[in-house]
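Hey, resending since the last one bounced:
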Amino acid sequence: MSELVQVRKKAQVTLPQSVRRSLNIEEGDFLDVRVEDGKIVLRVKKLVDKEQAWFWTKRWQEGEKEAEEDIRAGRTHRFDTAKDAIAFLQRRAKENPGAAGES
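The structure tokens again:
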């Protein structure tokens, strides 16, 4: 998709409606602007509350991806009680010492 826009006073540019719809850009959204290989590149950004920033770290997102893969592959366990779950984890730790510290 290619659209022609004009730079107006104070260097303002209006994003065409087709672009906004395609990328779900709404009023108040933020755009990261950078120059790459002589081109202006815009990336839509959403702000995250500081208290929730941990969830978006690379390490946490890698863990989320791994968990989703395990769920899809059926590598899950169900327990009737938290006590049963803890006992299971303790048995696993004894069977595979050092695994808890791996990342």
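Strands lie at 30-36, 39-45.

Sorry for the duplicate.
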